[in-house]
Each structure stands twice: as C-alpha cells, then as structure tokens.
C-alpha cells in the first residue's frame, strides 16, 4: 500500500561546496535499487560536473512510500534542449535527507541510476545505523547528469513512510484466564476465583473460566451483562471492582460478603505478587482496551475502497467558515470485531491536515474520531474538526486531508495523541508506539471553499 504525496518546490537553497564522501551509499547500475551495489566513490557537483542550462529537466515528480522501509521515487525524461535523443543516455543522481535542505546538498546523495531510468526504489540499505525508518518524513531531490554536465534542479518531494504495524499483545488464554486461577483466598489457599466461578458452578451466574462466560457476564451471549466493556479498559476494571466489592457485609449473598477475605487481607492473593485482585487490573484493562479478543489482533484496519458500497465515500467540505466535515467508509478489521459484533469504539479514525500535502504535520493529528453505538450503525463515518490556528483564525481556504484508521491493538499505550508534549522524549516514544497500530493505506482529500 502506498502513500502518495505531491511535490513541493522549495525556495532556492545554496548547494554546499563541501565535498563529502558518500562511501557505500553511492550505487550505480540498472536495477534502480539502493541495494544494487556501490562504487565507494565521492560525489561533487562542483568538481565533477558543470551546470548545463541546456539540460531540460523538470526534476523529481513524486516520492511515494510503498512500505515502512521503502520509497519509490520517479521523474520525467531529461534531455539536452537541442538533442531530444539524448534522453536515453541521461543518468540521474538521487539525494535524500530528513530536512527540506538536505537533499540539495552533496552529502545527501544516495545513488546514481543507469541510463534512461526514470524510477528508483530507496530501501535505505546505504545507512549503517539508520534512525527509525517508519512513520518518518523523508525529502528527496533528483538531478540529471550526462558526461560532465549536470542539471540545476532544486525541486524537492517528500514521502511519509507508514508505521510498521504492531499487533496486539493481550491474549485471553495466556494473559487473563491464568490470573483467575492464581488469585488465592488468603484464608484457604486451595480456593481461587475459579473455585466459585466456573462453568456448572458459577456463583452469582458469573463464569470466569471461559471467554464466552466472561463476555456474557450475568446475562447471555445475545444480551450480555458483563464487567468487560470492549475497547474501554479503564471502565472495565472499574466495573470489575464495583461488582467484586458490591453489596453489604450484612447480606450473606452479596459479592462483598463472599469476597471479604480477598478484600480485607493485606498483601493477600498471589503469594509471589502479594497484591490480590490488584494483579488483575492491568490484564483486564489492557485486554478490554484491545477489544477483549480471544487472541491478539494481528492485522491493521483498511479502507475497502473497491467495495461498491463504499463508492464515493471519501470526501469532505466546509460546513461553515472554519469547520470541516469528512465522510469516509467504515474501515474493515474483522479480527478485532468483539463477540457482541458492535463496531462502536473498535477503530479510531485519525485525521491529518495541511494547507498542502507537504505541509501536513504527521506528528500532530488534527482530530481523532471513535464511533458511538449510534454512529457505528450508520453506513458511513462522519468526522468534524475545526480548521483554525491557536488564535482561532481560519488557517486557509484550501487544505489537504488524510484519514488513517487505527485499531485498538495499541490502545493500552497511555498517550493522548492530540495533546502530548512533543518536547518530552518519553511522550514522543509513546506517540510512536501508538501510531504503529494504524493502516499504511492512505488517500488525500482536497477541500476548498
């Protein structure tokens, strides 16, 4: 799945006269891949070539991420103005960097193509100790060379590599069920949660020994009444504690009376942990956050644009002078649909926007939408956001929007993706972790008023 970004022509930036060895980053040949080999030579626009204004070349036309660690770069033919046939003998030098200026410098050179080649796949194999490749904005530039002549191009295109998907981590059978057997009664170590809450002997109608029993709770599979609320981890654990300690000590049938040993015994419960029912907080919380699934969700959500029922659904408009409304299809992620079948809360729709493609700030979404029960029943997803700056002023009459569906597999990562502190390295890392649970499939929406 690719991410396409239009070009941006930045202002003229002086090419540094400094000649820096590119070592193994210089590849040359007909494969169009950075892994095709290296010459080990240096590259200098000033000492090796002379700018020739008779080379007709529009520069790079597109840089598209095709995976978390690959970018496809393309451009049109270059030729000498008075010799169209020369296009077949032109070669191209590719530059890359992490800033708009970097690919305009010799040090940013990564490869030289074979004659007449008009595409190049950057697989970053030239980097000995690469930074994170995924979820990163890369800048590219291309110049044409022939003999000792070089074109004078300053066009820069960007590609935003998608996040490498990180599957869920919580398994009911490995991470949740064993804990109910490990929480011992401090007054009788032969007793645990499952002693009273198993199939066939479920006290209070609550079966903790099976996935179906927990999700049905004291209700039924078709009409559940459980402490587990899929996708709402904190609420699920709060409900669990409320039910575990509910009622009065004077009512022998109440949960509080029956669980009194677990509640009042200091350091009771699991001998090793000594925390009793507190051992269940993180597993219940994180399992519910991920959707309370039997096994972890291993695939990202996707927009099924080819589905006839989604035809025409991926657009937006201004609904007043500063508010934008988007209409997108429901993203598909069958693995993470909970037992109750509801799409409510299953997927977060993350919205990025900029005045142009190149102006999108991928580290700061403008909105995140999670569906309510009523919204989940609609045939499309509607997302509103304000297109204003910090002072409340309209940013622009035109904007480019990208919506990326993000599933619940990483929802246990404790970060507010809209309001995190990007100067705090720990929060930046949490943000990166959460962003690894979204689709790499993207399309732009162009909106104007």
Describe the structure.
The protein is α+β, with helices and mostly antiparallel strands. It folds into three domains: 3-160, Immunoglobulins (Immunoglobulin-like), CATH 2.60.40; 172-289, no CATH class; 308-448, Immunoglobulin-like (Sandwich). It has ten helices and 25 strands. The strands form seven sheets. Strands 2, 3, 4, 9, 10, 12, 13 and 14 form an eight-stranded mixed beta sheet that branches. Strands 1-6-7-11 form a four-stranded antiparallel beta sheet, with no helix packed on it. A hairpin with a 2-residue loop joins strand 12 and strand 13. It is elongated, with a radius of gyration of 29 Å. Mean pLDDT is 83; it is low at 1-41 and 266-275.
Instruction: List the uncertain runs.
Output: 1-41, 266-275
Q: How many domains would you count in the coordinates?
A: 3
Which CATH-level-2 architecture of the largest domain? Sandwich
The helix tally amounts to: 10
CATH-assigned fold name of the largest domain: Immunoglobulin-like
State the name of the first-level CATH class of the largest domain.
Mainly Beta
Strand content: 25-35%
Shape estimate:
elongated
Oligomer: single chain
CATH homologous superfamily (4th level) name of the largest domain: Immunoglobulins
Gyration radius, in Å: 29 Å
What is the strand tally?
25
Helix content: 10-25%
Biggest β-sheet description:
8 strands, mixed
Computed structural class: alpha+beta
The overall pLDDT, averaged over residues, is 83
N-end to C-end Cα span: 30 Å
